[in-house]
Specification:
3 helices, ten-stranded mixed sheet, 2 domains, globular, Jelly Rolls, mainly beta, 4% helix, 32 strands, Tachylectin-2, Chain A
Length: 485
């Protein structure tokens, strides 16, 4: 088998692609973000308890946010609200403080003093929008910003803009799918084409008889107009459970790696005594009167990653759980993340930046929906993990370029990591590595540059530690010489 050429790119310990699994005893473990503050409350008259489908994109020094604003239920909780849905805009300089600018584009109840960019007058609206900046070098300037969403005919369609504020109707993209969620699209330069991740359904037997399963499919296009037949994501035989939004994106520190945060849909068959003890049970019963699944369903979020956008490693343990029971959680609509991640300062003095993620809450709870921030370590969605007993990681053969090894690692005070690089004619050993850092340059007992360009196997012994990522760089590496050498 040919060695894997990694060059100087960052590799994440999120899947088994680099691992010699028969010799690896450390655990590939999903991590979880911390819940943080509410960053945006959807309390404007044109917003409501159905506000969702947030898209966040970076445009220079500005973060642009787009979301669907609507009210789900009528006042007596007996039917869906008839008020139209609108698409709104907010912006931020730092990812913490968001503003809703008065844009004067659309009228609501006789006033244009609002942040609405699309309504029933300028949009054949139907379902959740997704907004992205088109990175195709051939994209016309007046199509730089694109919104995709389901239209009234059930097709996936697009809207186009030069400035990210004023949008015009584009074209119908495809009718091959159900699309009733936030569908994602992006330019992928490695294949010189667009990839889209869309919602569909398929049949499968279940505990409750035959059921329709919500799924995620991929499709490609050279021009954003003609799309291939959508194909199911390949989870390598994983459990076939329903997935809702997908939140797929490229990881900005390792663009060869796709990540996704699909929400997992769980609909139990019957109302049991456990539902009576969940917070907000009375409102849950009323909502279930409109449709039983509104009361029976709950959702959480899992983490998945891919190197080609088609075959995925999915962790089945939840990435985000609904959390400790409060009045308005453990409901259908919990843990729906925005397809975005923003590097933000840590609240700890002198600590490195962390990643901010965003999920909405108060879904269909008769109060304003809210967008909450979550935080997680950079590269920290998953790790190679060892408990107190020593475990090992052994890689498949690879070829790197550089003269130093940099790792993202966390240990306890008693924990440690030792690394050996096995080259064609020599083995380099590190000193004991301990600490908690995004960037530790590993000292070896020899010159790492002598192995650059050659086939190498990396062997890691670790205890009470998590290893998140590594890369070979051009840093000057410390020279470690063990006693007696």
């Amino acid at each position: 088998m040919n060695p894997i050429v990694i060059g100087s790119r960052r590799e994440l310990f999120w899947d088994s692609h680099l691992l010699e699994t028969s010799r690896t005893s450390a655990e590939l473990k999903v991590q979880s973000p911390r819940i943080e503050e509410i960053v945006l409350l959807h309390d404007a008259p044109w917003e409501g308890d159905g506000c969702n489908a947030h898209s966040i994109i970076r445009d220079g020094d500005l973060y642009r946010m787009y979301y669907l604003a609507w009210k789900m239920l009528d006042a007596d909780i007996t039917r869906h609200s008839t008020r139209e849905t609108v698409v709104c805009y907010a912006e931020s300089k730092d990812g913490f403080r968001w503003e809703k600018p008065a844009l004067g584009i659309c009228e609501f109840e006789g006033s244009r003093d609002n942040n609405i960019i699309l309504d029933g007058n300028n949009c054949d609206q139907r379902d959740m929008p997704y907004v992205f900046m088109d990175e195709n070098p051939a994209c016309p300037a007046d199509e730089k910003f694109k919104i995709i969403r389901k239209d009234q005919k059930g097709c996936l369609c697009c809207y186009l803009s030069e400035d990210g504020i004023g949008f015009r109707k584009g074209w119908s993209m495809t009718d091959q799918g159900k699309f009733d969620t936030q569908n994602i699209a992006m330019w992928v330069p490695e294949i010189n084409a667009y990839m889209a991740y869309i919602r569909d359904l398929h049949d499968r037997p279940s505990l409750y008889g035959k059921s329709r399963v919500r799924d995620i499919r991929w499709t490609t296009s050279p021009d954003f107009k003609s799309w291939t037949t959508p194909q199911l994501l390949d989870f390598d035989g994983g459990e076939d459970y329903p997935l809702y939004v997908n939140a797929v994106q490229r990881y900005y520190r390792a663009p060869h790696q796709f990540v996704g945060f699909p929400s997992r849909y769980v609909e139990r068959k019957d109302w049991t005594a456990n539902y009576d003890q969940l917070a907000g049970a009375e409102l849950r019963r009323k909502i279930a009167g409109i449709h039983p699944r509104y009361g029976l369903s709950t959702t959480d979020c899992v983490f998945m990653t891919s190197r080609d956008g088609k075959r995925w490693h999915r962790f089945d343990e939840a990435f985000i759980r609904p959390g400790i029971e409060r009045v308005n959680n453990w409901v259908y609509g919990d843990c729906f993340p925005a397809p975005a991640m923003i590097e933000t300062p840590s609240p700890l003095e002198h600590a490195p930046n962390e990643l901010s993620l965003y999920c909405y809450e108060n879904h269909w709870r008769m109060i304003p929906a809210a967008l909450r921030r979550y935080s997680i370590r950079i590269d920290g969605f998953a790790s190679m993990h060892a408990g107190y007993a020593e475990k090992r990681v052994v890689t498949r053969p690879f070829v790197f370029h550089g003269n130093a090894l940099e790792i993202n690692v966390a240990t306890s005070a008693r924990g440690s990591v030792h690394i050996a690089l096995h080259g064609p004619d020599t083995v380099l050993h590190s000193c004991e590595i301990f600490g908690d850092t995004l960037s530790r340059i590993v000292p070896f007992d020899g010159d790492v540059a002598t192995l650059s360009g050659h086939e190498v196997v990396m062997e890691i012994a670790m205890r009470d530690a998590d290893l998140y990522s590594f890369r070979f760089t051009g840093h000057e590496t410390p020279d470690y010489r063990p006693q007696g050498h």
